[in-house]
Amino acid sequence: MNHPLDLQQAIRAAMQTEKDAMDFYRLAAQKIADPKISCRFAQLAREERQHAYSFFNLYRGGDIHSFEEFLAEPPDTESDWGATLKLLESEGFTEEAALRLSIERERSLEKHLRETAETIDSPEVKAIYLANASSTHNHCRCISREYTEKYGKFDSC
Asked: Is the pLDDT of residue 134 over 90?
């Protein structure tokens, strides 16, 4: 059984991770020249925002006063998503690398969400984690299709 504080910490961390993904996709959409891929990344940013909001609704910590205030915080450059953005920028930010690294990040996030869900006793909270994991899997598949269409086969999700 999870201690409520541990659960709240897990929810806070999940909310932050979704915001980090949102920030990544928002910034990547601005840098990508291909309009189709840019639109896809902008769509993913909106969906990551929705994921973060689903966790915000579960969060009972006192450090966040509003969801909009939370979103207004600068991107976390030390997060996995922030490190991915730094790596892309250091490599010259190619669309191919953005797609490839996004697939890898989404795979990792889905795995983490599913593993965390298995440790949660609350059916409501567990359902939110699993729903976000399924959506994350769909993100991975979507990005994988974009990659395959433009660059050829890549390990799919």
From this structure: yes
Residue among 105, 101, 76 at smallest CA distance from 90? 101
pLDDT at 157: 77
* Strand, helix or coil for residue 57: coil
For the residues 20-27, what does the mean pLDDT come to?
Answer: 96
Tell me the whole-structure pTM to 2 decimals.
Answer: 0.87
Set out the domains of the chain in order of their start, with CATH numbers: 4-151 (1.20.1260.10)
Q: Which of 147, 139, 148 is nearest to 25 (CA)?
A: 139
Which CA distances in Å does 136 have to 33, 62, 157? 24, 28, 10
- Three-class secondary structure assignment of 91-149: CCCCHHHHHHHHHHHHHHHHHHHHHHHCCCCCHHHHHHHHHHHHHHHHHHHHHHHHHHH
CB 11 within 8 A of CB 58: yes
Model pLDDT for residues 111-128, shown as the tens digit of each residue: 999 999 999 888 888 998
Which pairs with CB-CB distance under 8 Å and at least 24 residues apart come from 117-125? 119/2, 120/2, 120/7, 120/10, 121/1, 121/2, 122/2, 122/7, 124/58, 125/7, 125/11, 125/58
